Amino acid sequence: MTITRGQADRRQAILEGAFTVFARRGYAQACVKEVAAEAGVAKPTVYNHLNDKATLFRQAVRAAAQVELDERLAALEPLKEPGDLRAALEDVGHKLLRLHTDDRSCALRRLLYAEITQFPDLVDIVAEHGPHRLGQALADRLARLALAGRLRADDPDQAAEQFIALLTGPLEARSRMGTRQLDDAELRQLARAAVRTFLAAFGTAGDSTR
Q1: Architecture of the domain delimited by 1-51
Q2: What kind and span of H or E run contains 46?
């Protein structure tokens, strides 16, 4: 069966509407009628694209996680051929922190925490499009920088893991696990501190001492 552009657009609208409703209501309180209204389609159209509420929920979470991943992968672009490595890392760190604190990212984490008991497979769904994939992509960029002599990273996977931890660990503490909004100046400060520590461990002499 060939899926037309119109069908694909309607499905995307349904998934976006569903994520908005589930994030607002939670799984138990959300209803398909509200999803249809949010998406601007008729209720039967939702069922034509996605068979039931549970499938709709899983697919909405999957789609939101994929959007998150695409944005995070794009944020790594400054590491492709960086001139000033410290500045590139700070840019990447700042972008990742902003993405981690945006409304969709926070809503996705709240949904996971709230619904993981009823939907244990959400862990696998989000892992497929989440931190693991980001870590792999970042490790690949760091490995290339190490081969070029820009970093001292014998284990790029570990280096990527630690870079992300240096960003998200202090963020969770400063934001009180997402209950306090940090302004952009604070996010930039966190990014600079993370890069400073990261380069002290993995940088070459020139980058790690600046």
Answers
A1: Orthogonal Bundle (1.10)
A2: helix 43-49
